[in-house]
Write a structure and sequence with these properties.
Largest sheet: 4 strands, mixed
Strand content: 15-25%
Structural class: alpha+beta
Distance between the termini: 47 Å
Number of domains: 1
Strand order of the largest sheet: 5-4-3-6
Radius of gyration: 19 Å
Number of strands: 6
Order of helices and strands: EEEEEHEHHH
Helix content: 25-40%
Number of helices: 4
Length: about 110
């Protein structure tokens, strides 16, 4: 019997059945334990918290595990200011430029 995992996407309200390989269990200190998947319907990246019982069930089902350490959490920089709209436009213009190396490959 194949294990299936039933999940719900809050973005598009899809109820999905996934194989264990399509889900990722993140295990870390404090409240950092959860599971995540990509919705097949809307391609949203979905993450939910997981209590210890659910984490154990997902482990036994064969869901891949990503161990998060305190060092990994503190290594993430604290970004003070989000990117501005004008910075997005500059970036977009740079991508649309015709003198980029990938243009030479096509």
């Amino acid at each position: 019997m194949t294990t299936i995992i039933r999940v719900h996407c809050p973005g598009c309200s899809a109820d999905l059945t996934l194989d264990p390989g399509e889900v990722l269990l993140t295990v870390g200190p404090g409240d950092a334990t959860g599971y995540r998947f990509i919705c097949r319907q809307c391609q949203a990246r979905v993450a939910y918290p997981a209590n210890p019982r659910l984490a154990l069930i997902l482990r036994h089902a064969g869901v891949p595990i990503l161990q998060i350490t305190d060092e990994a959490i503190t290594a993430v920089p604290n970004v003070a200011d989000p990117i501005s709209a004008s910075e997005v436009l500059v970036f977009s213009d740079a991508i649309d430029a015709t003198d980029t190396p990938q243009d030479e490959l096509t």
